[in-house]
Amino acid sequence: MFKNIFSNLYGIGQVLFKATPLIFAGLGVAIAFKGGIFNIGGEGQIYMGALLTAITGIYLKLPAYILLPLSIIAGFIGGGIWGLIPGYFKAKYNAHEVITTIMLNFIAIAITNYLTSGIINVPETVRTKEVSCFIPRIEDFFPQFKGSALNLSFFIAILLVIYFTYYLYRTKSGFELRVLGESIDCAEYSGVNIKKKIISTMFLSGGLCGLVGINFVLGYKHYFEQGFSGGAGFMAIAVALLGNNTPFGVFFASLLFGILSFGGLIINAYVPKELVDILQAVIILSVISFREVFKR
User: Which domain holds residue 48?
Assistant: First the structure.
C-alpha cells in the first residue's frame, strides 16, 4: 500500500487532497474542544458552508479575482452561522451543544438535499451548476501531479494551521479560549465574557468546518452535490482527538487519515475496505489509551 502511494507524485497528491478537508474540519472541531465546547455539528456546518460557497460562485456575476475570495468567505460565514446557532443557545439557555449540533446536522443535510432536488439543481441531477471561479489544481503548476485532485486549498489549510497555532498560544483571545476549556470559573475570574466567548468560539469553529467546501466546490468538482463530504465532519472529531486538539496535531492526524483513506482504495482489490476502517479505529483507541497511561 505504502509503495503504491509514495512511489509517484499522483499518490502523494491524492493523500494530501483527502487530508485537506480533514485539516479544515479538524481545526474547527479542535478549536471548540479546546474551549471545552463539544461541537459535533461539523457535518452540518460543512454542508451549509459548501452550499453558500456554491451559491456565491454561481449567482454573483463578478470578476473571478473578486468572486473567488468572496466565495471562500461565504463558505466560512455559512459554516460559522450554523455553528453560531448552537453557541447562542448554549450561552443564552445553557442548551447542551451535543444535542443541538447533532440536530442541526440533520437540518442542514435536509435543507441542502431539498435545494439540490428541484430548486437550484441541474435538471435530473442532485448537484448545482458549476461555479464561475476556481481554485487552481497543483497539476496546473507541476505536471508530475497529473490526475491528482490536489489543489491550492491545501496550502490555505496549512496557513490556517500556522495561524491558529499562533492564535491559541500567543494571543489574548486564544488564552481566554484555553482558560475557558480548563475551567469556566477560572475564565470568569480572569474577566472573560463567558457567553460572548462561547458564541464567538462556535462561530469560529463552524466557519473553519465550512471551509471544507472550498476543496470540493472550488478546487475539485466545481459544483455542490448531495453527499459530497464523505462524513468529513464526523471524521474530524477523531482527527481532533488524535491530534490532541492542537493545530499541528490536527495536521499530522489528517495526513495519517489521508494515507489510510487513499490506501484503502488501493488495497480494496485485495482486502475488504472495512479492514481499513478497523485500522483507523484501532489507531484512535491506541493513541487515546497511551495518552491516558502517560498522564498517570
Answer: 2-295
Q: What's the alpha-carbon Rg for the chain, to the nearest Å?
A: 19
Q: What is the mean pLDDT of residues 81-91?
A: 97
**pLDDT, position 278:** 83
Q: Are 140 and 132 in contact (CB under 8 A)?
A: no
For residue 180, give the CATH number of its domain.
1.10.3470
Torsions phi, psi for 137 (to 5 deg): -85, 155
Asked if 236 and 105 touch (Cβ cutoff 8 Å), the reply is: no
Q: Could you tell me which residues come within 8 angstroms of residue 177 by beta carbon, excluding any fewer than 6 positions away?
A: 31, 34, 35, 168, 197, 201
Longest dimension (CA), the chain: 59
Distance of alpha carbon 201 from alpha carbon 174, whole angstroms: 10
Give residue-wise pLDDT tens across range 1-60. 666 676 789 989 999 999 999 999 999 999 999 999 999 999 999 999 999 999 999 999
* DSSP code for 116: T
How far is residue 292's CA from residue 3's CA, in Å, rounded to a whole number?
33
Task: Decide: residue 292, CB within 10 A, 0-12 exposed, 13-18 middle, 19+ buried.
Answer: exposed
Give residue 287's pLDDT band: very low, low, confident or very high (50, 70, 90): confident
Q: How far apart are CA 296 and CA 278, in angstroms?
A: 27
Report the number of distinct structural domains present in the chain: 1
Handedness of CA 246, 249, 255, 256 (dihedral sign): negative
Distance CA 71, CA 35 (A): 28
C-alpha cell at 102: 447533532
Alpha-carbon span 152 to 214, nearest angstrom:
10
